[in-house]
């Protein structure tokens, strides 16, 4: 249950971070486009203050999701340290470490994107009305946007590969758990049989004596039948 919650939060964080990154990369070009439209009749749908409010809202949401994911990881760590799971401790520790790495990557990516956004916003405020610098930065931002899109696609492919690996690890853990349970049952049955054999040795000796008497009686009965048969044959021929 904790792993399912962690995966759900990780998926939500992944989508939030992608949108957050797109917002940050489009902020500068949006500011340049608004300056070009100030002299025309058209008005952009999303102005600077709206983007700032959206940035603050998304940052708060991502911070809350990171806090929830941290709490889930702490609960998983408490479970792995609790008693009753010694045979699966190594596998669980590996899974916990994977979720910790994912949380660390998301946290690092969030702080990096946030710092870049704040740096871009401060830079845009300092540039002012210098047309040449704005156009230069706009062209550079377009290249960065294309590179960022490529990086985001590659990042998505890597996340999908990680999810497939996690599912494979889950299947292997379930198989190992079932095999461990079956081995425990077989050991329990064997120990019970050994206990019964050691507790009742007289029963074994009695059974052996009964078998010996049966064999002796069979031999005697066979001898009597053979003697009678011989006597009958002698009587018949005489």
From TrEMBL:
Keywords assigned by UniProt, alphabetized: Golgi apparatus, Membrane, Protein transport, Transmembrane, Transmembrane helix, Transport
GO annotations of cellular component type: cis-Golgi network; Golgi medial cisterna; Golgi membrane; SNARE complex
A Pfam family assignment: V-SNARE_C
Compartmental location: Golgi apparatus membrane
MF-aspect GO terms: SNAP receptor activity
Domain of life of the native organism: Eukaryota
GO BP of this protein: endoplasmic reticulum to Golgi vesicle-mediated transport; inter-Golgi cisterna vesicle-mediated transport; protein transport; vesicle fusion
Transmembrane segments: 219-237
Major location category of this protein: Golgi
Membrane topology: Single-pass type IV membrane protein
Family: Belongs to the GOSR1 family.
PANTHER family: GOLGI SNAP RECEPTOR COMPLEX MEMBER 1, GOS-28 SNARE- RELATED
Function: Involved in transport from the ER to the Golgi apparatus as well as in intra-Golgi transport. It belongs to a super-family of proteins called t-SNAREs or soluble NSF (N-ethylmaleimide-sensitive factor) attachment protein receptor. May play a protective role against hydrogen peroxide induced cytotoxicity under glutathione depleted conditions in neuronal cells by regulating the intracellular ROS levels via inhibition of p38 MAPK (MAPK11, MAPK12, MAPK13 and MAPK14). Participates in docking and fusion stage of ER to cis-Golgi transport.
The name this protein goes by in its record: Golgi SNAP receptor complex member 1
Lineage of origin: Eukaryota, Metazoa, Chordata, Craniata, Vertebrata
Chain's gene name: Gosr1
